[in-house]
Specification:
Elements lengths: L1 E6 L6 H15 L5 H9 L7 E10 L2 E10 L6 E2 H10 L4 H22 L7 E2 L1 H21 L1 E6 L2 E2 L4 E4 L2 E4 L3 H6 L5 E2 L10 H10 L2 E2 L6 E9 L10 E8 L17
Parallel strand pairs: 1-6, 6-11, 7-10
Antiparallel strand pairs: 1-13, 2-3, 4-5, 8-9, 12-13
Length: about 260
């Protein structure tokens, strides 16, 4: 079986995950590219008015994959029910669609709780709604394309300092991120910036079985995905390791190798 290990030790966001998984898909080889696979699957959403723009971005001297979700048509105001309805009507595979629905619901519940409102009143502004559903649904379909049976993530860097948003200047982690970080293993580096976004945390909460060190396995591929604020001064990216499980009896106990649970 294959395991996906997500190294989020320098942060996590939806676009970082999307780019890292597409890069890992390319590293595995096989027909097509990660970008082509993703765009083909996203057509099944039946959602128009956006396009993906791919690039290579150097971050701290490391070549990473980067993707922007660009709005090409005006978008209506959408609530959680609207986004879930898009998934329900789509032709995306059942597991990916259900995982995407679960992540969106987690995201909506966190926003509702911190703002003291009802879940059905939470709205996603214009391109924010498109960007969110593309990041979340795209990540889920790429996980299926990678053929992974389990997902483990590293401790997550939430960052530090303050972030400016529609509600003013807030300490990091912002309230929605703090709510979505529940159940994950996290820390705050002295970077003076936000390093984990609500979308990235909602995805981890949905798919990661546990947080910790990289599990025992043979590395098949490593994908690097950077975000919009990743740069040499702030070298942030997600690394996606695709591991092939190693049988316990293949490990030499005399070498003190950890047992595979």
């Amino acid at each position: 079986m294959r395991t996906l290990y997500l190294d989020c030790s320098s942060g996590v966001s939806g676009d970082m995950l999307l780019a890292a998984l597409a890069h890992a898909h390319d590293e595995l080889g096989g027909p097509g590219t990660g970008a082509a696979c993703l765009e083909s699957e996203l057509e099944r959403l039946g959602l128009s008015g956006f396009e993906l723009r791919w690039s290579q971005k150097s971050v701290g001297g490391i070549a990473t994959r980067h993707v922007d979700v660009v709005q090409t048509l005006d978008q209506p105001m959408r609530h959680l029910a609207d986004l879930v309805g898009i998934l329900d009507r789509s032709a995306i595979s059942g597991r990916a669609a259900q995982r995407a629905t679960d992540a969106l619901t987690l995201l909506g519940r966190a926003e509702a709780k911190v703002h003291g409102t009802r879940l059905d009143q939470v709205h996603f502004h214009e391109i924010g709604a498109v960007d969110t559903i593309v990041d979340i649904a795209g990540t889920m379909v790429l996980m299926d394309a990678l053929g992974v049976a389990a997902v483990v993530c590293s401790p997550v860097d939430l960052g530090s300092g303050f972030v400016h948003c529609a509600h003013g200047r807030l300490p990091v982690p912002a309230p929605a991120c703090a709510e979505l970080a529940k159940g994950l293993t996290t820390f705050g580096s002295a970077c003076g910036m936000e390093r984990a976004t609500p979308t990235g945390l909602a995805i981890l909460r949905t798919v990661a079985e546990r947080c910790g060190a990289m599990p025992l396995g043979s590395v098949l591929a490593v994908g690097y995905g950077s975000g919009g604020r990743s740069c040499d001064e702030q070298p942030t990216f997600v690394r996606a390791f695709v591991l092939e499980d190693v049988a316990v009896d293949a490990v030499d106990a005399d070498q003190g190798a950890p047992r595979h649970e």
